[in-house]
Write the C-alpha cells for this entry.
Amino acid sequence: MKYISYIVFAFAILVTASCSKQDNGNLATASPDSGGTGQGGSLARFTIADDYLYVVDDKKLYAYSLANPMSPKLTSTQNIGEDIETIYSFKDKLFIGSQNAMYIYSIANGASPDKLGEASHVRACDPVIANEDVAYVTVRSGTGCGGTINALYVFDITNILSPRQKTVINMEGPWGLGMSGSRLYVCNGSSGMNIYDISNKYYPKLVQQIYDATYYDVIVYNDVLICMVEGGTLLYEIKGDGQIVKMGRISS
Amino acid sequence: MKKIKHAIWLVLPMMVILTSCDPKVNRVEPSPSEVDGWAPVYAKDGTAEVINSVQPREIENGGKIYVKGNTLYQVEVGKGIHVIDITDRNNPTKVRFINVIGAQEMSIKNNNLYTNNVNDLVVVDITNINEVKLLDRVSGVFHLVDPTLPPSPGYFECVDAKQGVVVGWEQKLLHNPVCRKN
C-alpha cells in the first residue's frame, strides 16, 4: 500500500514538475526589492504565507513555523486527500489542488490550517489560483493525469464553504496559470498561451493567443510575465492596454 | 556444509520467483531493444547533501520558477537552482547555480531560500549568492522523491545500490531494459 502511494506520488511529481504558483497573493503591491517573500508559479508544492511555510506532498499538508526563519519548526501535519499536486495561498486561505478536487483551508490559525470547503472535479492534473470571489482551475488529461478532459474551470467561491462551478472552457492541454487585474493567463502547453479578459470574472473571454513557445507556467510579476517554457524561461512586458510584448529569453 | 549448498539451490530460484512477483516491478522479457524510459540518478554517499553556489550551467531540464526582486530562480529538476538576473528584461543573465541534489521546489523569505534536498527541507542563506550557506536541515517529514520507482509507468533502468543513493530520476533512451513500472 505504501508503494502504491509512492507510485501515485511520483506520478504527481512528474506531471507537476514543470508548473508553478504564486507565493504571494497580493500581486498589486508586490514590487521588486519588497523584501519578504517572492512569487512562485501555479504548480508549486511550497508556499509561504505570513510566518509559515506550507508544503504538500501526495497526501499531506505540512505547516512549518518560520518564526525563526533560519530554523523552520514543523507545527502540524494533516491528511488532505489523494494525489495532491499543488498549493496556492491567497490572504488567509490555502487552495490545494489534487487530481480530483480543489480543497480550501483557512490559515487564520497558521500553525494548523482548518479545512473550509472543497470542490470535486474530473480526474486530471489541476493547478488552481484564486482570489476572494473566484477560483480558476485547469485540468489536463493524459499520461500521469488520467481522465480525458482538458479545460479551464471557473468556480464562484464567495461562499467558501461551498464553491460553485460557473464555467468550463475547453482547451487543448492547459498547465499553469496566473492572473492580474482583468487578465488571466493560461499556459496551454504546445498550443501556446491563452489570455482572457476576466472583467466578468466568472466568464473569461479569450482576447489573445501567443505561440512563441511551449508554455508550462506563468508568474505575473508587476508588468512582466515570466513564462516557464520548453527549454527555459521567456519574459514579456505587459503594456498599459493589456497587450504583451516579447522581451528576453533564457535558454540553455 | 553440503546441506547449506543444497539449501542455496532451493533458495535462489525462490528469490528469483519472488522478485518477479513483485507487483510494482515487472521484469519483462523480451524487452524492446530501444525505448524511452527512466534511469535513476545516483549520488555517492556524502555527496547528496552538499549545497553550494557555483558558476552558471546549462538549463537541461528546467523546472519550477520563482521570482523575488530582480532575480529569477529556475529549478534544474533534481540538481539545483539557476539564479538569473532579470534587471534588464531584454537580456536576462544567468549569474550562479546552486547545487541542491533532488531539488524540485523552492520558496524564499528574506534571504532564506527553502528547498527540498531530496526529502529534506533545507534552509539556505543566499545573502551572498556567490557563497551560499546551509543554515538548517529538517529530515524525514515529506516525501517528494521516491528512491525505488520512477515518476511514471514504463520501462526503467533497474536500481543498482552499488552505484549510490537514488536521489531522483531522469528520462533516458534505454536499451533492452529489464525493469518496468506498471
Q: What stands out?
A: The first strand of chain A starts at residue 39 and ends at 40. The mean pLDDT of chain A is 85. The radius of gyration of chain A is 17 Å. Chain A touches chain B through 63 residues (CB under 8 Å).
